[in-house]
Amino acid sequence: MDDTTLPATETDGTGHAILGQVPLEIIVSVGFARPMVKELMRLRRDSVLPLDRRIDDPVELYVGDKLIARGELQELEGEQAGYLGVKLTELANLDEML
Prior knowledge:
alpha+beta; Surface presentation of antigens (SPOA); extended
């Protein structure tokens, strides 16, 4: 096989079979903080940095700079107890983004 030939893959004509194999990093944004530099310089271990969101506000999920969903933080149970997860409440139309 030369460098210009790709292996055959099953696809639905849109390339989703190939895209389905690409890992993505999703960023979950829980809020922003905008302290003044002097406030930032006073931060120490155990300091609390206030965010612009309340505890029950939805979090936002991004791939790169694209908002793909919103959801609610939840603590996982069972074998993953103690870890955080996101229960999705709103989804963007991902097909339109591709």
